[in-house]
Write a structure and sequence with these properties.
Blueprint: E1 2-5, H1 11-30, H2 32-42, H3 45-52, E2 57-63, E3 68-76, E4 82-90, H4 99-110, E5 116-122, H5 126-134, E6 138-139, E7 144-146, E8 149-157
Helix pairs in contact: 1-2
């Protein structure tokens, strides 16, 4: 498994990966129909294509040479001191194999000027919260409700 920059030729596989991980993670919270609606909007080809050219960002995939098993997208603030991890997903059947950690490590290395890495997470997503806590993240703010969902900001200081 290696981590590399995503390209146009990866977008269909990334879209499928996002649909699979969202259904595995959020069907119990939102229901399958709502997950279909969210993934159709947030993970459309146009949305994914825009990430390829987003300024001050990294769009990464974890690839074993045969298939993409994970992806991450992160973008820095204009001053480069804060990086927001917008997406980090690993196929459900590949979770627990270190792929998420590889992607997270690469995100951190891609932004050497950054002093803080932040992310927003669905409060009910206990496995992801545990993953980030185990990698040095802590809850930064009290949960905020957005579209009837409790969102928590987590952050990790960088050197």
């Amino acid at each position: 498994m290696f981590v590399r920059t995503a390209g146009e030729h990866d977008l269909e596989a990334i879209k499928a990966l996002l649909a699979a991980t969202w259904h595995a993670t959020y069907d119990a919270i939102y229901g399958p129909r709502r997950v279909d609606e969210i993934t159709a909007e947030w993970h459309s080809m146009a949305s994914l294509r825009a990430r390829l050219t987003h300024p001050h960002s990294e769009f990464l995939v974890a690839d074993d040479g045969k298939a993409i098993a994970g992806m991450a997208f992160a973008a820095a603030t204009d001053d480069g001191k804060v990086v927001w991890l917008r997406q980090l997903y690993v196929l459900p059947e590949r979770q627990g194999a270190g792929i998420g950690t590889m992607l997270l490590d690469e995100v951190e290395q891609c932004f050497p000027e950054a002093r803080m890495l932040k992310l927003e997470i669905e409060q009910e997503n206990a496995p992801a919260t545990g993953f980030y806590r185990a990698r040095g993240f802590a809850v930064a703010d009290t949960p905020a409700v957005q579209d009837e969902v409790s969102i928590v900001v987590m952050e990790k200081p960088l050197s």
